[in-house]
Amino acid sequence: MNSIIEGALQRQSAAAFEAAKPDLLLLVHRIPYPPNKGDKIRSYNLLKHLATKYKVHLATFVDDADDWQHVPTVEALCASSHFVKLDPLQGKLRSAKALAMGKSLSLEYYRDAGMKRWVARTMRERGIARVMTFCSVMAQYAEDFPAARRVIDFCDIDSDKWRQYAEKKKWPMSWVYAHEARSLLDYERKVAGEFDASLFVSAPEAELFRTLAPESGAKIGHFSNGVDTEYFSPLRAYDNPYAAGEQALVFTGAMDYWPNVDAVKWFAEHVLPRVRASVPNARFYIVGSRPAPEVLALANEAIVVTGTVPDVRPYLAHCVAAVAPLRIARGIQNKVLEAMAMGRPVVASQQAFEGIEAAPGRELIVADTPEEHADSVIALLRTPDTAMGQAARASVERRYSWAAHLSPIETRFEC
Prior knowledge:
It comes from Massilia litorea. InterPro entries: Sugar_tfrase_PEP-CTERM_Stp1. By secondary structure, the protein is α/β, with parallel strands linked by helices. It folds into 2 domains: 1-223, Rossmann fold, CATH 3.40.50.2000; 247-400, Rossmann fold, CATH 3.40.50. Helices cover 46% and strands 16% of the residues. It is built from 17 helices and 13 strands. A 7-stranded parallel sheet has the order 3-2-1-4-5-6-7, sandwiched between helices. The protein has a 6-stranded parallel sheet with strand order 10-9-8-11-12-13, sandwiched between helices. Strand 2, helix 3 (71-75) and strand 3 form a beta-alpha-beta unit. The chain is globular. It starts with a helix and ends in a 9-residue tail after the last helix.
C-alpha cells in the first residue's frame, strides 16, 4: 500500500513540475530527428535539453519524405508542434523571384504563410515570452515578437558559406552566390541587432561574426557541439562491412551537400591515386545518404559509394582511418568528432579542423596539400596508429559533453 501511495505522490510531483515549466517557442528549419547530419544532431540535442526546462512549442519544416515517420518521436518531446512539408520546387520558384527583386534567396525558400499563422496563434494563446530560433532563415518567424526574449542559434555563418561557394563556382552561379552572401549577411546583422543573444557553434565562428557585425559584438557567443560517446563507442562489437584483405578509408556525411561532394571528388582525384600507388589494397568508402550524381560517378574498383546505411558505426569501427578533406567548411565537423569518439585516426584538412579542440599530431592529423593527405594516409595504412585513436577518444570524452555545453543556454533567456 505504501508503495502505491508513494508512486501516486511521485506522479503528482512530476505532473506539477511539468505544469510549472515556462513555455518556449522553438523554430527549426529541418525536423530535428533523426540526428543523422550535422544540423540535426545539434537541433535534436538542443530540443532534448530545452524540453527538460520548458514546455516546448516547435515549428519546423520536413524536407525528406522518410522523415515523416519520425514525427511522433519529436512530438513526444513537445507541448505542441507544427510540421510543414518543404516543397523544393516551390522553394526554388520563390528564390528565383527573390533574386529578381534583390532579396535573399534563402529567406524566401523557407517562407510559409501557414507556419507564420501557427506561430502567431501559438504565441498569442500561450502567452509565450521566450523564443529560440535555430538557423538564420527561421528568424523571419520571430520578427513580430520583439517583446519576447529572443535567442538565435545561427550555428554557422551561412552568408560566409555562400561567399565560399561563390569563390569556387563559375559565372553565373558565382554571381548568384555572391548576391546571396551579401543579402543574407545583411539579414544576419539585422537579426543579431534585434535579438537578445546570437550564438554560434564555436569560438572562432563567433569571433568571425563579431568582425562582420561589430555593432552586436556584446550579444554574440557560442556553445559547442557535443558527441554521444555512449552511442559512438568503440567498445561494442560491430560486424565488419569491408571485404577481406582491403584497407578501408572512410568519409561520412550527407552526400548531397556540396562541400561534402567537393571533398570526396578532390580526394578521389588528387589523393587516392597516390595512396593506391603505395598501398594497392586501399579502398575509399563514401558513406552517407542521398549521394549526388557526381558522387555516384566516382564508384569504381578503388571507391565504394554506399548511399544510406542503417548504422555508420561499423564503417568507422573497422576502417584504418577516417578522412575529412573538406575545402569548404564552417563551424564544427561532427564527422570528425564522431570518428574520434570511435577511436579512429582522422586525417582532416585545415578547414575541417577549424573549431575543433584537439592536439594535431597526437589526437588527429591535419593536412592541407594532396601530398600531405596522401603521406599521412599511407603512413596509417602501413602502420595503424592505435595510440592516436585512443587519444582521440579520450579527447572527445573530455571536451565534448552535450550536457556541459547546453547547460548555459537557459541563462540566455534571463533578462
